[in-house]
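Quarterly update from the structural biology core.
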Amino acid sequence: MINLGFDEINQVISVEDLFEPVKQSFIDYSSEKLIAAPIELFHFSNGGDAHIKMAAINGYDYFSVKVATMFPGNLQNGIPATNGAIFLFNALTGEPTAILRDKRLLTDLRTAAAGAVATDFFSHPAADTLTVIGTGKQAYFQCMALSKLRKLSKIIIYGRNNGHAAQLKEKMERDMPGIQIFCGEQAESAVRASDMIITTTSAKEPIIKGSWLRKGQHVTAIGADDAFKKEIDEDCFTMADHIYVDSLELNTNCGEYAGALAKNPYLQQKTTELGVAFRNNERLSGPGTITLVKLVGLGVQDLAACSVVLNKMQFEII
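Predicted structure, tokenized:
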């Protein structure tokens, strides 16, 4: 069985490698090719959690099982808060094929690719200003990934910790020359100031209010990937002219969409799965509309990312 560690994976993969594979994985998810892609979530008394995401698609060489963990308390003991591994099995024989001990690198990169592809696709073509809500690793990856797809003039960072926001600003100024980087003092003013908004936090209460949104804006909400997290309020969904989700089934149980839909069933009438929109090239953004993408994360994205790694390393199915 192929056994790959973090360093080996990191050397061969970049977020640009995942743009098209992740986009195709959304299309496959929303098609008859999908066999299954269930998600399980464990919550622990110390604040840690573990996501188990699986995926099997007809025509793929492998099927996958991913375990990604987040234990914030680890930081106090000098241990990384995030970790994980992805297991691949031969889709023809069921034999274990590979274990990728990626320490959540592929999760971070495929999430960045998904957010960037969706934001670029559904935002108004002239949009060039971005506000990112959050100051962690994924906030950085989202901005970096989107800058590979769209020319950005300005990025505003808003975080509840001013020190973390300043550190992220410094890193982004170093790695993204030519883009003006600012730290926003308030969430509302940061949201109102940009054409595109991406949220990347683990907030339990909404940070963004729908009353702040204006026509022509796009929101991609990423951080709330379970039933306990909320980054955007229900009014954001009400205000949106078009809503796109990675999975209709999963979003009725996870993230903010579930609560908004329970109170306003009509929201489903303006909701489309990303895969369907990508397949039909459905671009409904414009200066007179608000578009919203809600992602909870799919196992098919992990499967796509792992397939890219093995193909780049020229491994054959064994």
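The chain has eleven helices and 15 strands.
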